[in-house]
Design a protein that fits this description.
It comes from Litchfieldella qijiaojingensis. InterPro entries: Isoprenoid_synthase_dom_sf (IPR008949), Polyprenyl_synt (IPR000092), Polyprenyl_synt_CS (IPR033749), Prenyl_diphosphate_synthase (IPR053378). Its cofactor is Mg(2+). This protein is an all-alpha fold. About 70% of the residues lie in helices and about 0% in strands. It is built from 15 helices and 2 strands. The protein has a two-stranded antiparallel sheet.
Length: about 300
């Protein structure tokens, strides 16, 4: 492992450990009213994962001068939203998955009804978490996370995804679906980190949004590629699921080489977008490369 990669891995591990500790505290500092629901929520959010979205919160905020302590609540909140979305996406009415991160999905472990309630509760806990640290731009943080989660964000993307099963969308429609389903929360993570540090009218927000839009789509393309080429042991779930469900993907539309070229072009866009931030944005550039070179 070269020195640059080793430093990146150490930074990723540190940020994962930090947000995991914060998430643990959200569960440990109270007695649960419904222990089975609490167990399902913990299963959905504390069972591992890349923690990419909170890592983006930390990396963006640090690049703009925010303290890591001020970034903890937004980092935890965006991971809770991500966890809720996975719990619901795995349900039989959606993607009907049995495994997530190498473990039974929440509905397999606790039943469908409890899984629905766990997803609901994780979503609302995200907004509760946002309020646990006082911040002058709390309203902007809440708006950012809500917009990314709802009818103009992930929920819209999932609706487009369900509608596309068995159909033949073109690349533009596929990009629209992924920019909502996956990209919206990645853009929110970057914006949350930025808003902790700077005002809403800071010109760097536009550059960061361009960066986030590019890496959000590149991340999904790499997911599509790994569904074809990935090792199920590393993925923590079966490969080939998209093809089995007749879901449109970038490899299906462009071929594997075309999908890889598209991801690389988006990486170039993301790196170019960071130019106005200068050297402090180097960790964000490292993250962009990591996102399309990962194997799980």
């Amino acid at each position: 492992m070269n020195a640059d990669l080793s430093a990146l891995e150490a930074r990723l591990a540190s940020d994962r450990a930090r947000v995991d500790a914060w998430l643990e505290r959200l569960f440990n500092e109270r007695l649960p009213a419904a222990p089975q629901l609490e167990a399902a929520m913990r299963h959905g959010v504390l069972g591992g994962g890349k923690r990419l979205r909170p890592i983006l919160v930390y990396a963006t905020g640090r690049a703009l001068g925010a303290s890591v302590e001020a970034l903890d609540a937004p980092a935890a909140a965006v991971e809770l939203i991500h966890a809720y979305s996975l719990v619901h996406d795995d349900l039989p009415a959606m993607d009907d998955d049995d495994l997530r991160r190498g473990q039974p999905t929440v509905h397999k472990a606790f039943g469908e009804a409890t899984a629905i309630l766990a997803g609901d509760a994780l979503q609302t806990l995200a907004f509760e978490a946002l309020t646990l640290v006082e911040h002058p731009r709390l309203g902007a943080l809440i708006r950012t996370l809500a917009a990314a989660s709802g009818r103009d964000g992930m929920a819209a993307g999932q609706a487009l995804d369900l509608a596309a099963v068995g159909g033949h969308p073109d690349v533009e429609l596929l990009a629209k679906m992924h920019r909502h389903k996956t990209g919206a929360l990645i853009r929110a993570a970057v914006r949350l980190g930025a808003l902790v540090a700077v005002a809403e009218n800071d010109p760097r927000l536009s550059a960061l949004d361009d960066y986030a839009a590019a890496i959000g789509l590149a991340f999904q393309i790499q997911d599509d590629i790994l569904d074809v080429t990935g090792d199920p042991a590393k993925l923590g779930k079966a490969s080939g699921a998209d093809a089995a469900r007749d879901k449109p993907t970038y490899p299906a539309l462009l071929g594997l080489d075309g999908a890889r070229a598209k991801a690389r072009a988006l990486l170039d866009e993301a790196l170019a977008s960071l130019a106005p931030l200068g050297e402090p944005a180097a960790p964000l550039a490292d993250l962009a490369r990591y996102m399309i070179e990962r194997d799980h």
